[in-house]
Amino acid sequence: MGFKSFSDSMQVKAVLFSIKRHDNYQPKQAKPLLKAEFEQLLSVIDTQSLAGIRDLALLSWLWFGAFRKSEIVAAKVEDLESVAGKGMLLNLGRNKVNQTGEKRLQVPMILQPVYPYCPSTLMQLWLERSKIKKGPVFRAIKKGEQLQSKALSSSAVDHILNKYLDLANLTGYTPHSFRAGFLTEAKLAGAPDEKLRQVSQHSSAALERYIRPVELLDHPAAAYII
């Protein structure tokens, strides 16, 4: 109705700051799914079924693209762009950092055919087996391998992940753990922040929050002494 938001007032900001300062405030962060656990998770997927191939491609893209759950379920075949010999690009539409859709955001997906969980290879396999030519990439599948026209829901992604976490004897991970895990793993491996931001679409300050504490134990100051 045109009224100024009360949340901009200094009184409200002062109260929120005081709560954080006196209440041991800690932002909630997803437990990072690092590479070893990521590969353990994908290793239990049955690739003999259509649903298994979909799930393998889905979880591989969720990790290597550091995607938000909303981005992966919104992906369409028309958003994919193949680059011969190099991999694929996913053109993102509106998302958390591009709410008006004015920017053209592209997430690179590497091609490494010898790696069993290569995202580009798995995507090609999924599209070939599913015969999807347009529309949603990741779709619901009913009994008897009946592929549906509608996209997977966010809750379906949660269900798929929890199913394989149980099979792999892994606990404490959420879809956001893929984003945190990939960014942490890539940082530990020496990937420059510029390359990380190409995937995550983060600002420099926001990216720092995603590099989890495991990095602190990688060559800490004491390692230079003892």
Automatic annotation (TrEMBL):
Query: Which part of the chain is the Tyr recombinase domain?
Result: 28-225
* Record's keyword terms, sorted: DNA recombination
Q: A Pfam family in this protein?
A: Phage_integrase
InterPro entries in the cross-refs? DNA_brk_join_enz, Integrase-like_cat_sf, Integrase_catalytic, Phage_Integrase-like_Recomb
Matches recorded under PROSITE patterns: TYR_RECOMBINASE
Report the superkingdom from the record: Bacteria
According to UniProt, the name of this protein is Tyr recombinase domain-containing protein
Give the organism, scientific name.
Piscirickettsia litoralis
